[in-house]
Amino acid sequence: MAVPSTLHADFYGFQADLSPLEQEKALQIRDFLEHEVRPIANDYWARAEFPHQIVKPLAELGLFGMQIPETARFENSSVFRGWVAMEIGRVDASTATFVGVQSGLSMNAIARGGSPEQRRTWLPPMSRGELIGAFALTEPLSGSDSARGLRTTAERRGDTWVLHGAKRWIGNATMADVVVVWARDVADRQVKGFLVRRETPGFHASKIDDKQSLRIVQNADITLENVEVHESDRLPLILGFDDVATVLRLTRAGVAWQSVGVAIGAYETALRYVGEREQFGKPLASYQLVQDRLAQCLGNITACLAMCVQVSRMEDEDRQSHAHAALAKGYATSRAREVVAWCRELLGGNGITLSGGVVRYFADAEALYSLEGTRDMSNLIVGRDITGVSAFV
């Protein structure tokens, strides 16, 4: 199967703005995804299992730690990194989420908050896919209000910190070698980051079995019962929740890109279907209502892609704010939700089968709509920026 050098859904030709090397790398990534991930995605999604065999090839493509100087395999821009998230999301949102947790959350947290020794210890093997990371912030009773509502505690006793609490919805956690755990210091009430190894006594991760979105991602409930962590495994440059929010700002933009990929994947599937499926003696694609719906899908995709390109350019220019990332994330996930619903509609009854090719995007878009800050929370971040008044409780 030949892999196209450009995406049909890139209607305004944004790919041309990538450097020649980035375009070459994007094509290599697309080729791998089409031949190694797409053929197995439905099966692993249905079984809610993770295809461990793709980790090493993803690492060899240089997808882990592209934004970090000591692990980047080649020169790349923020726009390219977003483009990669889109390319992966176009084939499988769960794989894109795995890469986002490994590289955008876990490795970014260590790169931005860690000591030189911690960076040397963890980042190179994580970039090679030899070690898997997770990022444990969300809790059973704390999601959108993590800044104020974090309940997991950390108490210092000499050179040891004792962690106690619980986490929920933690991607990669059942297979992670190291988990970046966020806990509130009982002494100064500031949020701090800790590197917790999987084998640490008192640490337990159990898979969440009943979710119906991003099923390939191994999300877990975590319990921390008097988990002892040495001071050398505390991230020393994390001084409070503002530092955590910086990591989240960067990954929110990544989720926006990923959502564009999901919308493109559903759109491309629907476009192929209406070209092949005949009703009343002619292809569905020949009907005005179908063409109108396809144009609406493409309009959403193009608007979101333009927003993502610009917000990533702003990151490269060091002028991306929390509000910029939040607007892109909230808007792109909302529009992707519309696109996947319209595409499912275009496939009729076949749209609710995995073999039809759209329902996996339909279900996965629901998780993207909520994770990394819901649409409502994203809009409140934007609202605070444009009005100067916080509407947070």
From TrEMBL:
Which Pfam families would you find in this protein's record? Acyl-CoA_dh_1, Acyl-CoA_dh_M, Acyl-CoA_dh_N
As one GO molecular function, the record gives:
glutaryl-CoA dehydrogenase activity
Protein keywords:
FAD, Flavoprotein, Oxidoreductase
- What's the EC number here? 1.3.8.6
All residue ranges annotated as the Acyl-CoA oxidase/dehydrogenase middle domain in the record: 134-227
Q: Which residues form the Acyl-CoA dehydrogenase/oxidase C-terminal domain?
A: 240-385
Q: Which residues form the Acyl-CoA dehydrogenase/oxidase N-terminal domain?
A: 28-130
Q: Domain of life here?
A: Bacteria
Named cofactor requirement(s): FAD
Q: Which family is this sequence assigned to?
A: Belongs to the acyl-CoA dehydrogenase family.
* Protein name listed in UniProt: Glutaryl-CoA dehydrogenase
Source organism of the structure: Kineosporia succinea
